[in-house]
Specification:
The structure is a single chain. This protein is mainly α. A two-stranded antiparallel ribbon has the order 1-2.
């Protein structure tokens, strides 16, 4: 751990984030085995975010902090660049209705925006963080919290029908 004057940093997490970034670039560049890398490079970032999860403080302060660090950058860049993208991409086929729908999808963080697609991670991490903050606030503090959290996570995984493991098995080796 390194003391930077504010908080102690965990070098191993910085290294893991660096490896994750390289894996994202590799996967998006369609390097060898990128189909396998694509199965875990984003879950790696969620896992690291979970390791850095700070559930201290009031939920309202936590939400404000997450809006500021995750949603504001998402909104800023997507709303700034969307008009340019929309006019260029839908050059002769654009409509006011389609433009308003696109803006609404950005504001309400629904669907994956097509032009800054990598930014889907920011609202996904926001909603995941808020979900777990609420769950942890509602849970009494006891020795079973980790087990209950694991069960809830597995239930959400199943509810959303996430099939990462089956995709790994079918990936081209």
């Amino acid at each position: 751990m390194v003391d930077n004057g504010l908080k102690k940093r965990r070098n191993s997490l910085d290294i893991a984030k660096g490896i994750g970034i390289l894996l994202v670039v590799w996967g998006h560049a369609y390097g060898p085995q990128s189909d396998i890398i694509g199965q875990f490079h984003m879950p790696l970032f969620f896992f690291i975010s979970g390791m850095l999860f700070d559930d201290k403080g009031k939920i309202s302060d936590y939400i404000k902090r997450k809006v500021s660090s995750l949603l504001i950058p998402f909104w800023r860049w997507n709303l700034l660049l969307f008009p340019l993208f929309y006019v260029l991409y839908y050059w002769k086929h654009w409509t006011v209705r389609g433009f308003i729908i696109g803006i609404s999808e950005i504001v309400f963080t629904v669907n994956k925006v097509p032009f800054l697609g990598a930014t889907w991670f920011l609202p996904a991490l926001f909603w995941t963080s808020i979900f777990w903050k609420v769950i942890l606030e509602l849970m009494p503090d006891n020795k079973w919290n980790d087990f209950v959290t694991l069960i809830i996570g597995g239930g959400v995984w199943r509810l959303l029908d996430l099939r990462m493991i089956s995709h790994i098995e079918s990936a081209e080796l």
